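Input sequence (216 aa), recorded before submission:
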Amino acid sequence: MTFTVLWDNDGVLVDTEGLYYRATREVLARVGIDLASEQFKGISLRRGESTFQLAVEQGVPAEEIAFLRGERDCLYSEFLGTQSWVIQGVEGALQSLHGKMRMGVVTSSRRDHFSIAHAKSGLLRYFDFILTREDYERTKPHPEPYLTAIRRHRLVPEQCIVVEDSERGLASATAAGLECLIVLSEWTKDGDFSQACRVLDDVSCVPDEVLRRALR
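Predicted structure, token format:
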């Protein structure tokens, strides 16, 4: 039976959380909202909710919020396209596991953003499948993204492990009945990861943990 590693994207493979925060902060400032980094962490990375709810609470009209969201997405795309954002140690980790087991990406990122982020990454050759935001109705922390991966690719939960960096990602994985490794980042290092099977300081530690669990 083939063991499978399911990788999150943002904050695990590519260092993009700061770019998303920067783009969101810039457009919300246009309607007088100063989005602090701690707010962004709590709303987006912990609870998996939209920071545009802050605009709703201030009475900004729905059509203006839709416009701002589009502006944020365009700005984020621009930021993504400026260079490669691959996290140090990721390619080495993927090389260590490639050919020994199946690997897929399960991300809340939109397909167009994912494509831009990986246009220069060189990482896609390591993956057997990729699921993006368009592949499910409800995103993380709901379990649907990982349940979709299980169903679509006929995975056995006991023969899978997830690699995440955020509380919303951990919640999604565990609710789907999957073990989850957490790789800490600057954006998520203060999170509650008590439900993770292991918390790692660096992505380079992932292969040893995965292989140990695959062989048990």
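Checked by second reader. The longest helix spans residues 62-80.
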